[in-house]
Amino acid sequence: QVQLVESGGGLVQPGGSLRLSCAASGSFFNFYVMGWYRQAPGKQRELVAHISGGGIINYADSVKGRFTISRDNAKNMVYLQMNGLQVEDTAVYYCNRVGSLLSWGQGTQVTVSS
Hints:
Largest sheet: 6 strands, mixed
Helix content: under 10%
Radius of gyration: 13 Å
Number of helices: 0
Shape: globular
Strand content: over 45%
Order of helices and strands: EEEEEEEEEE
Structural class: mainly beta
Number of strands: 10
C-alpha cells in the first residue's frame, strides 16, 4: 500500500516562499498522475496542481504563475515550489494521486500571515 508523507510547510509572510515535498512509498509511482491538494479551514479540499509521470502539468487558476510542481520519479518524490504566497494560500497541503485517490497523508500546514 502506497504511503504519502508531506513536509516543508510553515509560517511565512505574504510574498514569501516555501517548498513542499511529498515522499511516496511503493512501486509504479512513475505511472501516477500526482497532485497537490489543499484544504483551508471551513472549505473543501481542492486540487491546485498536478503532474503526469511524463511531466505534463496543470495548475488551478488561483496559483498559476506562482506555484511550480515537479517530480523526481527515481526518488518517488513530488514537490511544490510556492512563491508569492498570499494569505488566501493558508491551508493544509496534501499530495495524492489524481483520479483514483490513495490514502491521505497527514498533510503539511502552510500559514501565510504578517
